[in-house]
Every structure is written in structure tokens, then in C-alpha cells.
Amino acid sequence: MNKEKNGQAPTLSLQDVRAGYDIGEVLHGITLRVGRGERVCMLGRNGAGKTTTLRAIMGLLPQRAGRIEVNGNDVGKWPAHRIARSGVGYVPEERRIFPTLTVRENLTLALAARSQRNGPSLDDVFSLFPNLATLQRARGGNLSGGEQQMLTIARGLMTAPGLLLLDEPTEGLAPVVVADLQRALEQIVTTDVAVLLTEQKVDFALSLCDRAYVLDRGEIRFEGPAGELRNNERVLDEYLAVGAAQRG
Ligand SMILES: Nc1ncnc2c1ncn2[C@@H]1O[C@H](COP(=O)(O)OP(=O)(O)OP(=O)(O)O)[C@@H](O)[C@H]1O
Ligand SMILES: [Mg+2]
């Protein structure tokens, strides 16, 4: 077991994880950790391996080698539903809402998947996402893309996870919706939920997170405090291809 300084295991720890698809290995030895209540981002270009890393954590890939621990438990052989039950919420890139159910029904369904008894109430979640409160009787399928994204994140939170994995939460969202989402996520991260999020919007991720990893072709190229990465022009240019003008 991989202990933190205070004797508690970190919320998430990956050690030299190698994984991929039938086409071959995509992750060539990923080592990362998320401490209790910590906010960590994983940045990288298209195809760097961000989604694959999250899928490996969720047990959605045949893990090839390495070790994945959640709260000190080796989850390498656990099926996805057991990992979810142990307190890992996963909001995948593709928004999986129930289109024929209302917003409210989509959220209450998540209660059944709760990993622990106490967690946010519907009202808590509506105060984080006021738009959803107004839309609670609307059918999921009629929501805009941004609203559906809010709903999937809200649903992830309703499962009362100790760790929330968010895969590019801002993808395809208009700037004004990104700002709404940022406000909601800032409030989430003041609770004791640890967050691991992947992003291509570097400024968004760094303003939200304590620590960052940069992934390139299935390998970690940088690890450090968010503020350090913000000033590291070499890493930003080389692996994220964001000149100052493009960051956002
Ligand atoms: N289901 C799959 N089967 C085969 N190869 C895949 C599969 N999913 C992803 N890959 C490959 O694995 C590599 C990493 O993909 P991944 O989806 O993890 O990247 P990503 O960092 O999430 O990119 P993006 O920012 O575009 O979402 C890519 O080369 C991709 O083509
Ligand atoms: Mg991806």
C-alpha cells in the first residue's frame, strides 16, 4: 500500500501503468497520484492517452501491467461497477444521459449508485447548477449540449464519489457556459471530493487545479504544481502546442 505522509493512502495512485487496445499499447508506464481532496489535471494533445488513462482507472480496459490503487486498494482486477461503487465517479467524454427521462429523474437515478450514504442532496446539486433547477422537468434529450454536460457532471456528483474523473468537461462548450461550469467546479472542489480532470483548455484546467500532469504519446512529460506549469513555456510549447495567444 502506497501511504501518504499522514499515514492515509492517497485517493488514487497509478504506478507504471501500461495499457492499450487490440491495436497495441497506448500508455507506456503512467505514474500519477491524486491525494485526498486534491484537484489534479491531466493535459495533453489529441491522442495523448488522457481518455485511455481514465478508462484504465475505471477498469474499462484490459490492464496489461502496473498497479492502480484507489484508497489503497489494488483495483487492477476489479470490474468497473465495483470501482464505481468504491467511490469513483466517471464523467466520460460522450455525455451519457437518459434522453427520455427528466433532469430530475436523471439525477435521482444516480442515488441508486451511491458509494456512501451521505452525499449531496438534489437541492445541493441544484444550487451548484442553477440552470438545472429551472430545467428539472425537461427531458434530458431536449437539453442543449452545455446543459447536458452540466447534467452529467451533476449526476456524477450525486453518486457521492470520493474521486471524480472528468474527461474534457469543457469540450464543445461556448465560453459563457465554460464560465458557468468553472464556477460550479470551483465550488465542488471546495468540498472533500478529489478531482482528476483531463483538458485541452490549459488555462481553465490550471486555474482550477492544484497540480498538473502533461501527457504525450502515452508518457508523462511533466508533473508539478499548476503554477509551475503555467510558467513553463518549454513544456507548454512542446507538448501542448499552446502559444500564449492560443491558451484559453
Ligand atoms: N477504442 C480504441 N481502440 C483502439 N485505439 C484506440 C481506442 N481509443 C483510443 N485509441 C487510440 O489510443 C490513443 C490515445 O487515445 P485517447 O482517446 O486516450 O487520447 P486522448 O488524449 O483522450 O485524446 P483526445 O484529446 O482527442 O480525447 C490514440 O492513438 C487513439 O487512436
Ligand atoms: Mg479523450
Characterization of this structure:
With 248 residues, the chain is α/β, with parallel strands linked by helices. It has one domain: Rossmann fold (3-Layer(aba) Sandwich). Helices cover 33% and strands 26% of the residues. It has helices at residues 50-57, 80-85, 103-111, 122-128, 130-134, 145-158, 175-188, 202-208, 226-230, 233-240; strands at 12-21, 24-34, 39-43, 63-70, 73-74, 88-91, 163-167, 194-199, 211-216, 219-225. Strands 6-7-8-3-9-10 form a 6-stranded mixed beta sheet, with helices on both faces. Strands 2-1-4-5 form a 4-stranded antiparallel beta sheet, covered by helices on one side. β7 (163-167), α7 (175-188) and β8 form a beta-alpha-beta unit. α3 runs parallel beside α6. Mean pLDDT is 89; it is low at 244-248. Magnesium ion binds at residues 50-51, 93, 167-168. Magnesium ion (MG) binds next to α1.
